[in-house]
Design brief:
The chain is 9% helix and 55% strand. The protein has one domain: Immunoglobulin-like (Sandwich), CATH 2.60.40.
Length: 152
């Protein structure tokens, strides 16, 4: 029984999460995929990475993030400014119509601070993204090793 429950849960975690936009056409969706984080040794912070494709006919924006495993979750952008790398909190992140916005190392990411425990490889945990139009969408984060997801 445990194996069956684990297999079902694993399939749900691996499948991309899709949220319907306000358009009544089922082909017009907001798709969230490739959701992952690296394992951590401490509870100080972790970064979450993902891709969002806006297949709706409306510009979308992520306005907030949260997770039950962190005291605080925020949107961040890492970038080089005048030869110095910096990480700046973002109030929102736009997702233009027809575009895919990638949250990836060295760029946009979700910062989790004050983790309830270190993240171990193989862990799975929820993160809720709040969108201006689509509302709240919860995705499940797959914790990888330090090198990130392994491509096949």
């Amino acid at each position: 029984m445990k194996a069956a429950v684990f297999a079902l849960f694993s399939m749900l975690v691996i499948m991309p999460t899709t949220a319907k936009g306000h358009d009544t056409n089922a082909d017009h969706t907001l798709d969230i995929s490739d959701v992952w984080a690296r394992k951590t040794r401490r509870t100080t912070s972790a970064a979450v990475y993902l891709k969002i494709h806006n297949g709706t006919e409306t510009v979308e924006s992520i306005t907030d993030v949260s997770s039950p495993i962190a005291n605080m979750a925020t949107l961040h952008l890492s970038q080089e400014v005048d030869g110095v790398m910096r990480m700046d909190m973002q109030d929102s992140v736009p997702v233009p119509v027809g575009a895919t916005v990638a949250f990836e190392p060295g760029g946009l990411h979700i910062m989790l601070m004050g983790l309830s425990k270190p993240l171990a490889e193989g862990d799975v945990f929820p993160v809720t993204l709040s969108f201006e139009q689509a509302g709240d969408i919860t995705v499940y984060v797959d914790v990888t090793g330090l090198s990130g997801p392994q491509t096949k």
